[in-house]
Amino acid sequence: MLINKISNFFKDNKLISALILISFLSSLRNLFLPLIGDEGTYAKIAENIIYNGSYWFNGRPSTVTPSLPLIMALFYTKTAPAIGFILSKLVNLVLVIIGLKYLYLFLRNLRLGRELMWCILLLTIVNNNFVFWSLILYPESILFCFFWMFIYFLSKEIKELQDFLNILIPFIILLLTRYVFAVFSIFLLIVGWKYLKILIRDKNYKDLQKLLFYSFIAIIPVIFWFKFVYYAEQNFNIGLSYFGKFKNQDIFHHLKTGIGIEGRNGIPAFISLFIPATSIRSWIISSLLLFTFVTGFITKFKDELYRKLFVAILLVQLGLIFAGTGFSRYWLPMLPGYLLGFYLFYKSLKLKDSYFILLTKIVAIIYVANEMRLNIQIMTNL
Description:
Strand order of the largest sheet: 1-2
Largest sheet: 2 strands, antiparallel
Number of strands: 2
C-alpha cells in the first residue's frame, strides 16, 4: 500500500522523481571512493575485531562507539578488504532507505499535505551533505535510520509491550552509535513509567514480567559496553577515546566551543548543513537559522507530535553544545526536522504554500546541479 502510494506520487511528479533519482545515483559514486578520515580508523578497529578478537586501535583499547566498526567487521576480509567496505556501504544505504520510510510515516501523521510532505523529503534527499555522508563509512546513516524510527514510534501511543520495545531498541542503537543520544533516556523513562502504571492499574502482571525481562535483555549490550568503556578508560592508555577530551578540559571550555565562541565548529557550522561549501562558518547566519527553526516549532508547541520532535532535536542540540562539538554532519540525522521548522516559520508569516513548494524545487535543482558538477569533476579525474 505504502509502495503504491509512493510510486503513484513519482508518476505524477516527474521533476521530483528526476531530482531524487539523480541524487541517488550521485551517492553511489561513494561506493568506490577510497576510505577517508575516520573511515580508516573504523576499518582498523574492525580488522582487530576479526583477527585479534579485540576492540583496539593502534595497539591500544578504543572507546569509540561500536555500531559502525561491528558492521564493518561483519563484512571485513583480509584478501579483498575493498569488497567488504563496499558491502558495508551498501548496508548504510539500506539503513538510509529504512530511515526515509519512517520519516515518511512520521510526516504523514503530521497531516501536512502530500506536496508539503514531499518537499521535506525532497530537500532531505538532494541535500549535498546527505548525498555525501549517507553512503560513506561514518555513523550518520545509522543515526538517521534509528533517529526517525525512534521519533516515529515515540509519536505513537504505548498500548502493549511491542510498542515500548519499538522505542527501546532504536534508543540502544543510537546510544551505541553516538553517546550524545543518551539524552533520549528522558523520553524512555517517561513512556516507560506511563506504560508501567497502566500495567499495574490493570493488574497485568504477566506483561509486567515480560516488560522487565525483555528490557533487561535489550540493555545487556549497553551494560557490557559501558563496563568495557569504564574499565578501559580507568586502566589503559587509550588508543582512541571520545572521553579523553573531557579529562583535560573544563565544562566551560566545551560550552564555549559548542556555542561557537571558541573554534570554528559548534553553532557557527550549522549553516554548512544547508550549503554545498561545507567549510563555511557563520555565527550570525547559523543563529538566525536556528531562531527560525525554534520559532516555527513554537507555533505548533501545543501539538504533541510536533512537540516531541522539537524537544528531541533540542536535547541533541544541547548535548552537542555541552560536548563542545558540532560538525555539519552531526546535525544531519535531524535535517528533516530543521526543514520542517523552517516551513512552520514560513507558514506563521501567512504566506502561500505554493511559494514554499516552488522555492523547494528551485533549491533542490541547485543541489542536484552541484552534484552533477561533482560527478563530472570526479569522472574527469579518474
